[in-house]
Amino acid sequence: MGFKSSLFTSLLMVGSAAAATTTAAAAASTVSVEPIIMKGTKFFYKNGTQFFIKGIAYQQDTGAAGTTTGSTYIDPLSNVTLCERDIPLMQKLETNVIRTYAIDPTADHSGCMALLQEAGIYVISDLSEPDLSINRDSPTWNTALFTRYKSVVDELGQYENVIGFFAGNEVTNNNTNTDASAYVKAAVRDVKAYINSTSSRWMGVGYAANDDDDIRDNMAHYFNCGDQDNAIDFWGYNIYEWCGENTFTGSGYSEVVSFFQNYSVPVFFAEYGCNEPDGAKGRIWEETTALYSSEMTDVIAGGIVYMYFEEANDYGLVSIVDDKASTMADYDTLSTVIAKVSPSSTAMSAYTPTNSPAACPAIGSAWQAADVLPPTPDNSTCDCMVKSLTCVPSDSLNSTGYAALFGSICGLDASACAGITANTSTGVYGAYVMCDATEQISYVLDAYYKNQNSDSSACDWNGQAQVVKASTAASSCSALLAAASSSNSYAATATAGSASTSTGSSSGSSTTSKSAAPSFSRSILTLGDLSVGLYVLVAMATGAGMLVL
Ligand SMILES: *[C@@H]1O[C@H](CO)[C@@H](O)[C@H](O)[C@H]1NC(C)=O
Ligand SMILES: *[C@@H]1O[C@H](CO)[C@@H](O)[C@H](O)[C@H]1NC(C)=O
Ligand SMILES: *[C@@H]1O[C@H](CO)[C@@H](O)[C@H](O)[C@H]1NC(C)=O
Ligand SMILES: *[C@@H]1O[C@H](CO)[C@@H](O)[C@H](O)[C@H]1NC(C)=O
Ligand SMILES: *[C@@H]1O[C@H](CO)[C@@H](O)[C@H](O)[C@H]1NC(C)=O
Ligand SMILES: *[C@@H]1O[C@H](CO)[C@@H](O)[C@H](O)[C@H]1NC(C)=O
Ligand SMILES: *[C@@H]1O[C@H](CO)[C@@H](O)[C@H](O)[C@H]1NC(C)=O
Ligand SMILES: *[C@@H]1O[C@H](CO)[C@@H](O)[C@H](O)[C@H]1NC(C)=O
């Protein structure tokens, strides 16, 4: 479940709340917040007191207010007037965490963040937005996504009451799309390294999973296993198993606790609050009592109620009419229930973690993501590659034509496409899987042309391609391109069962990428609409599949 939206738009522009923002920020600037850190499977205030999440999901769907046609999301933390309306209501529920699903990194969040801080409320935010997220049907981890994720970290990371981020929400959601988890784990790795290199304090990077029987155990192990620099800092479970009246065992909560007993990082409910049998307002919150009881608190670090806003899916605590908030019956029930919970806590000094990371799941029909991950998106590498090409798209090729061209070229010459192929189950990736679609089609045109001994007739495609002189590239390009070229040769020849051999090649190229100076130069060719890129990649994958057959 969670935040879903599909309309197309540009980012929300927020500016006129500046005056209110400044006032709120000034008022709160004297309040300092005790940062949250993790140790083993538990969260703590930095002062050593254990921290249990009492959270609420806080994100209004587009169109819910009837005001925002044409937006893919409404930033929940950029309008101080709305934060002033809602935060007191969340405080009355003893809320200490909100989960936001999509924020606009260009907006000013200082007002809302200050109000939250004053209220003792921390934020865990998803990094994606509807138009820039890892798509389970055509998963990728590329420069556009990494740029978006970094911008959210840069923006929210300024505020000490940010605990961390989700690199994905229910991306893999059943056994047909387990491959997508490789890209999400690559995002975890890269965002962790980015936080590590840019922030002076800890912020975690986790994943929010759905609760699908077939995959949940493999998935939990996958995100926890292997090199801990690549593994999640916390596991969020979106769980709706306890509905109405139930019990610890009857609800399946006991199995969750028993499964996660051995997990090595914090686990919490990233969404909970089943609305059956009586709809949102009929919720009685027995599961909340259970969540903070001694049966669970040793293993589960609390949970986030889904959700603040009452909307068409009927999971709300508060309904909004004409910008006015009114609490619903389940809000009152929750406030009574939450007032009575009193989780018994452990002091950080008295706690010695003993669990170790899980083993990675075996690759097979049930799980198709190896722990050898896709490369780190690196604009410099893509940029250097484009500059080195001598066969490139002509003006008459636009993104509509990419799919057909990928299909034709990769069908004629698979080796020309090795640099953009990916196999999650063997962990073999071309170096340019992380570039954008325009860069990729350029690479493929050029590789085909070179494979045809630079015969000019091999760089035409009905006028869609043209021969050019390679541009002068920065001296730093030669090392990047050499590393990419070696990954691509490996990808071209890689066969079954070669995941371990590929480790060297893959990590070699990502190390090179990471150490490269960031480039702010834009590609000479840009693609406006990512969804076109995704479409192209789907078409391409289909083409490549047919080729294998
Ligand atoms: C904040 O929300 C209120 C209520 O919807 C609206 O009237 C106001 O214009 C918004 N402010 C900004 C800066 O968007
Ligand atoms: C640590 O900080 C939290 C939040 O301010 C506070 O509730 C708690 O009492 C503090 N613990 C200690 C040991 O000072
Ligand atoms: C990197 O490339 C992506 C995709 O082309 C683009 O959206 C982004 O702005 C670039 N980032 C930088 C820092 O140049
Ligand atoms: C798996 O999830 C996808 C995407 O939500 C859906 O289209 C497909 O029907 C699901 N398949 C199964 C077997 O549940
Ligand atoms: C963070 O940086 C430290 C030292 O700079 C390093 O030991 C650690 O492995 C890094 N972690 C990640 C996730 O990059
Ligand atoms: C947890 O670890 C113990 C000891 O290693 C083991 O016996 C048990 O089977 C594990 N439980 C799960 C659910 O993995
Ligand atoms: C894009 O190229 C296609 C041919 O592949 C053409 O039909 C279409 O008009 C072009 N669109 C634009 C906006 O140039
Ligand atoms: C990945 O590689 C393995 C081993 O070569 C092969 O069996 C499998 O079909 C490939 N998967 C895809 C999606 O191409």
UniProtKB/TrEMBL annotation:
Location of the X8 domain: 389-479
UniProt entry keywords in alphabetical sequence: Disulfide bond, Glycoprotein, GPI-anchor, Lipoprotein, Membrane, Signal, Transferase
SUPFAM superfamilies: (Trans)glycosidases
Pfam family, one: Glyco_hydro_72
InterPro entries: GH, Glucanosyltransferase, X8
Main location group: membrane
Signal peptide region: 1-19
Protein's cellular compartments: Cell membrane
Role, per record: Splits internally a 1,3-beta-glucan molecule and transfers the newly generated reducing end (the donor) to the non-reducing end of another 1,3-beta-glucan molecule (the acceptor) forming a 1,3-beta linkage, resulting in the elongation of 1,3-beta-glucan chains in the cell wall.
Protein name stated in the entry: 1,3-beta-glucanosyltransferase
Organism, scientific name: Sporothrix curviconia
